[in-house]
Amino acid sequence: MAQPNEQDQPHLKLEVLSQPRYLCGARELVSTVARRLGFDELSCSQIALAVDEALANVMRHGYGGRSDGRVWISVWPLDASDDCACGGIRIVIEDEAKQVEPDCIQGRDLDDVKPGGLGVHIIRHVMDVACYEKRECSGMRLTLQKKMVTTEATAAELDGDAARAG
Description:
Layout: E1 12-17, H1 23-36, H2 41-62, E2 70-78, E3 88-95, H3 119-126, E4 129-134, E5 140-147, H4 152-165
Antiparallel strand pairs: 1-2, 2-3, 3-5, 4-5
Helix pairs in contact: 1-2, 2-3
């Protein structure tokens, strides 16, 4: 997955410790940013859920429950020039946790009905892009991307917001 070049700094970057108490704040932050970019409420909730699942997996599996690991969440808006006709969002989650082969990152068998283990399925279902990669030195990188789907009403609402802001 092509990463933004070095001059294309994230519009937002958050660093958190690998502690579940910070999941709520990360969800709220991502949901709020997605809303400001024009996503509807359902999409904002789905994007926040995907980020929550990804972070929980890093904390639980990557860091093995350690509370001193670092996780970085970077956010970029996507516009029409980013191969996205209506805009969207790119979120990159990086860590220094245990590396795994990206092809080995799988959710459990969906026929195995029990709580938990669905995070990877949720992430891949909710997002348009979910690309797992090993980082060069240590840890993993997950690039998430979601394109915005707009209806005529949403487009008109965004045009009205732009006119009021301009």
